[in-house]
């Protein structure tokens, strides 16, 4: 057995002198172990030593600076990952996997997955379902995670050494996106928790990740891994806290998502982040908000020390003594991806009637609800509303037909269909849906259109109206209204 302490001591001595060569260290270890054994030991110790392995096999220190925003804007699922998906399909069904009985089977399974999600049915992931899931969902889920992580990197909150837990890792979309989002000089201990047949697909796709993205696959349920199953010890749980816990499109599939997510908060480092995202459809997006609100409220009244976690983004609570109770259907939209070859093949081989449209098996829309929670109380922007300057959305009923000032988080892109621009907003106090409706854009209110999703805006002199048809408040932004971007 190799002397790990000696390996660590030698690595620490050399780290600031020159690149660490396993062959050189082997000469200083009692018994002169084989360099390959030293290299593997260094790999296992690399995270704690903050060392990354270069392509030439030498190890060098990881920079202390946090990850910079990488300008994440993928235009397509990278070719290596697309090839890996097709490799799995060819292995399973042969070169013509998209045709004949195999193509029909895959198409039927994708249709079933879409139906189950729509009606919130329990989803069973056998091998065919996992392959269908990879075909239909992998590209968009790959892109989503980077757009969400931008909220953390903009404030320097991602270290270059990260311990990550991916709960319900599925076929690997969030894992691959995380891998490509991070710089080449980062080092990651990635733990995937996935109990289904999706692990076969996940395992193959993780082969495409780099040497400093160290992966461990736990074939267990989230409940078992986090120690929630009665009478059982946590399944292969690590004693070290995680810097990020990801729930990527999985909360809606858990029997008790609040309990599972709450246990995941306990597994976080004090300055870690729980990152959850879900499809943009109403059921899953509103379900995500319910979990988010339960975790932020904790055992208290939704304010102060009773909270288990703080809302970091995007649905900031601008009134620290308030709790939202509206449905909370909110989602972001990013540019579409190019259609990957495997989706095109499956779609083009579909037998269609005269009324059937192509594109049934193409899914490249990047639309997602998300939430980032942190136990350290950090928020993406540290802004609070003032009763001296702003009206609460919770009190909009008393202001109908009045002009008021609001501090608001922009929680949608333009939802109109070509008429007056329409944006969902919130301030953390709302009990009913609120929208800003721009009936006349001017130089003084243009910030409303130009503000990104999650931005905070100050609305001066907006006209509050009740929309009976929608059961919501519309705040009219016109030529008497000023909108200023407070925080991008």
Automatic annotation (TrEMBL):
Pfam (any one): DUF8157_C
InterPro entries per record: DUF8157_C, DUF8157_N, Methyltransf_12, SAM-dependent_MTases_sf
Keywords tagged on the record: Methyltransferase, Transferase
Source organism, top-level taxon: Archaea
GO molecular function: methyltransferase activity
Stretches assigned to the DUF8157 domain: 4-55, 394-485
GO process annotations (BP): methylation
Domain Methyltransferase type: 165-274
Protein name: SAM-dependent methyltransferase
Naturally occurring in which organism (per UniProt): Halorubrum ezzemoulense DSM 17463
